[in-house]
Design goal:
The structure is a homodimer of 210-residue chains.
Chain A (H helix, E strand, L loop, with lengths): L8 E6 L5 H11 L3 E3 L3 E2 L14 E2 L2 H9 L3 E7 L2 E6 H9 L3 E5 L2 H10 L4 E6 L3 H10 L5 H15 L7 E4 L3 H15 L7 H15 L1
Parallel strand pairs in A: 1-7, 1-8, 2-7, 3-4, 8-9
Antiparallel strand pairs in A: 3-6, 5-6
Chain lengths: 210, 210
C-alpha cells in the first residue's frame, strides 16, 4: 500500500455495457490496497451465492432494522427486495487503510455523496453511443425490447453524469483501469485528506522559527 | 498527448527546499504535453538570461500598461520590480491542448484560483521539517540568518496549504514527479472538463431512445 492513514471511499457507476464490472475485478486483482464493498439484500440467495461474499442475506425485518439504526450508507427497494450498503463493512476497511470501492447506481451514489462529501464518484462510459448500443446488442442475451429499455435508461442517467466527480471513457480496459486507479490514488493527495500531516508540519515549523 | 481538448492550468508552489524546480524540469523532459509558463518582469536581464525563455523583459511603463489592460493572470511587486504571468502565453498554449504549469508563490496562486477556479493548485513539501531545514542548510550557500528567515516564511506559508487542492510530499524525486503528473492527468477526467463529451453522449442517446 502506497499510503498511510484512512482509506478513501469511491463509487463507480456507469452505463450498462460500460465494462465497470471488469474494471473493478482488475483493480482488485492488480493492487492490494482495494476492498470491494459487499451489499446487503432481503432477496433470497440464488444457487452458488455465498453469504458475505455475494451479499449479506437478511430478512425484510432485519433489513428494516438496519434502516432504523442508520446502519446503511444507502439503500433502495427494487422489485420488492431491499438492497443496501452496510456502513460497518465499509468503514472498518477504510479504518484499516484500504480504499473501498462500491459499484452502485446513481441514486445510491447521490445519497452517499450528500452524507459523505469526501466520497469520490466516478462514472464509466463506452467511447460512443454506437459502441454502447453495439455492446448491449453484442451480448446476444437480451431482446430488442430490453436493449431499448436500457438505452432509454442510459439516456436518463446521462443527465446526471455532471453530478459525478470524474468521467472515464472505457475504450481500452487496461487504460481505463489505470485511470480509475490514478483517480483514487490522486484523491489521497487532496489537502482535505492530508490535514494531519499539514498540522504536524505547521507545528514543527513554529518550533523552529519560534 | 493522451487527451484532446483544451489543456489544464496547474500551479506548483512549495517550500524553499521542496525540490519543485527539479520536479518541473523532469515533468517537461518526460512528457510532451506540458508547457512551462514564462513570467514577465520589469527587472533588468542578468548575464545569460534570454528574452522569452528566462523572462519576458519589459520596462516599468510597459509592465504597468499590461496591468491596465488586464493582460496578466497575476502579478506582484518585489524589491522594486514587477513580476507577473502574461495571459496570452498561457492561454494560447492551453488552446493548443498543452497543460501549462506555473511555478509561482502563494499570493499569485490565490489571485489566479479566484479568477480561474478550474486551475489545479499543488503544494510540494519535503517529508518533514527536519528534512526541510537540512536541505536549506545543506545547500551551504546561505547564512544562518537567511535560513532562519526562510524557515519563518515556510511557517507562514504552512497556514495556507489548506487553500491548495493537493499536497505532495517529495521524499523521492521520481515518485513525486509521477504523482504530480497523475494529479494533472486526473484533472482531465473531472466532469467539468468533459462537458462537451457528456453533451454529445446525451444527444446521441436521445436519438436512439427516440
Amino acid at each position: 500500500m502506497s499510503h498511510t492513514g484512512r482509506g478513501i471511499l469511491t463509487i463507480v457507476s456507469g452505463f450498462a455495457g460500460s465494462g465497470k464490472g471488469t474494471v473493478m475485478k482488475k483493480l482488485v486483482a492488480e493492487h492490494d490496497n482495494y476492498a470491494l464493498s459487499v451489499s446487503a439484500t432481503s432477496r433470497a440467495p440464488r444457487p452458488g451465492e455465498e453469504e458475505g461474499v455475494s451479499y449479506f442475506f437478511r430478512t425484510r425485518e432485519q433489513f428494516e432494522e438496519m434502516i432504523r439504526q442508520d446502519a446503511l450508507l444507502e439503500y433502495a427497494e427494487y422489485v420488492g427486495n431491499y438492497y443496501g450498503t452496510p456502513k460497518d463493512f465499509v468503514f472498518s476497511r477504510m479504518d484499516e487503510g484500504r480504499d473501498v470501492i462500491l459499484e452502485i447506481e446513481l441514486q445510491g451514489a447521490m445519497q452517499i455523496k450528500k452524507k459523505y462529501p469526501d466520497t469520490v464518484l466516478i462514472f464509466l462510459t463506452p467511447p460512443s453511443v454506437d459502441e454502447l448500443y453495439g455492446r448491449l446488442k453484442g451480448r446476444g442475451t437480451e431482446t430488442d425490447e430490453v436493449i431499448a429499455k436500457r438505452m432509454k435508461r442510459a439516456s436518463e442517467e446521462a443527465l446526471s453524469i455532471k453530478d459525478y466527480d470524474y468521467l472515464v471513457i472505457n475504450d481500452n480496459i487496461d487504460d481505463c483501469t489505470r485511470k480509475v486507479h490514478e483517480i483514487i490514488q490522486t484523491a489521497h493527495h487532496e489537502v482535505r485528506h492530508e490535514a494531519e500531516f499539514i498540522e504536524s508540519i505547521r507545528e514543527g515549523l513554529e518550533k523552529y522559527s519560534g
